[in-house]
Specification:
Elements: E1 2-6, H1 13-23, E2 32-35, H2 49-61, E3 66-68, H3 76-85, E4 88-91, H4 98-105, H5 109-115, E5 120-124, H6 126-129, H7 138-144, H8 149-154, E6 164-166, H9 179-185, E7 193-195, E8 201-205, E9 208-212, E10 217-219
Parallel strand pairs: 1-5, 2-3, 2-4, 4-5, 6-7
Antiparallel strand pairs: 1-8, 7-10, 8-9
Length: about 220
Amino acid sequence: MKLILASQGFTTDEIAKSVEKLVNKPLKEINIAIINEAYVGLDATKDKRWLIKELSYIEKYIGGVIDFVNFRIYSKKEIEKRLNMADLIYIVGGKQHLLEKLFRETDTIDVIKNISKTKVIMGTSAGSIVLGKKITSTKFWDERYPQDKELAKTHEELNLVDFNIIPHYMREDRKNWTKDFFERVLQDNEFKVYAIKDSQAVIYNDGKIEFIGGMPEVFGKKN
């Protein structure tokens, strides 16, 4: 299984080159299938300029076919067909919890898990989080996502790997979520959580973990 858990996509040449190496194809030849439904759950007052910027990174680096796979419109068979035509599956972020709900309601969790055996999957922000293991700390949900803490009780992730990430770590608009905060609310979490900046990513390559853009902060139980 080959996964890239990123914060904001192709933000650096280093991330792009790492994707090229993992896919084992030149960037100019990589075909990409984009799953982009998570942004629809964001509030109407939230500026979506970040999405335009993130998609522009894909256009800058990827030279093959760029396809959008709409899970709400296409049949399960069509979804499988389009994902299998791509070299890289790219899951864009957005509203927390929405992606797992999308895959569950469209009966495609098995599709994502099966495709992960043969294709490289890259997630960004919430698109990365859904690939990992659900954070178990109650303090984290109560204090970081108080509006979603009831949903968090029943929500699951895909559990493709036994860790997860905190995206956009210490970005200008998130500096109130400090290292001390995450150390406190994640101290009882049963597994590692990597806090990554927008210039960083975590690679899972057939059991081996690599870091792009430097070593991230690590929270939760580290052993």
